[in-house]
Amino acid sequence: MYLMVMEISRLHGSWWAAGAPRLALAGVITALFATLGYTVRGVNRSGMVAGAAVCLALFAAAGPPAFMALLALFVVTWVATRIGRSKKQRLGTAERREGRSASQVVANLGAAAVCAVLFALRGEAWWLLASAAAMAEAAADTVSSELGQAFSRRALLITSLETVPPGTDGGISIRGTAAGVVAACLMSAVCAASGMIPLSWAPIAALAGVFGMLVDSFLGALFERNGRVGNDAVNFVSTVAAVIGVSAFRLL
Known about the structure:
Strand content: under 5%
Strand order of the largest sheet: 2-1-3
Distance between the termini: 14 Å
Oligomer: single chain
Number of domains: 1
Structural class: mainly alpha
Number of strands: 3
Order of helices and strands: HHHHHHHEEEHHH
Largest sheet: 3 strands, antiparallel
Number of helices: 10
């Protein structure tokens, strides 16, 4: 395991140390990615700027594998927000047509970007696993929420199991939760397939992502539902929870 960690650090670190040419390439790809996100209304103008910053941080710190994972996350969440859109509009929970704002982008991807930068600075491959887990949580949270609202007739409040309308903060459903688990597994598999993390680490990233998704539901029921905190804060803390989950696995 130690040799595996060192090899991952060496391969990813070579991208960070390559200097201006590769960083310039990362900048160009980042600009194209941000423009694509804005064009398809995945993000608004502020979200495009924030998305570009996050993308550049991930790309420069962890190389093309991290960018491939980010691209997969964008596609998965973009598709999920558009499934059953008419029903979600009736519920008043549909994603805004202009796309996600800067605060939403940072809330969902900030932890993953910070972990990638910490990997580049410290050279510890565990931070790549933490970054993958944060992205798995972001995918799980978005997909579970969006598909749960689209395909479930009712939800249960995670703290009391009382029946609540789909889209209620802290509400969970069988279909939505199952979809979130699948999304976490898919993101972890993409991170492994791209070379960001070893295949043997994918289950850890997936489990940590699911853990973060459940934390999101608890925070939604306990704090967001009564207006004590906003959705962006809940999303950010949930991705941090996924990072903490990875730390717990590390200690085992």
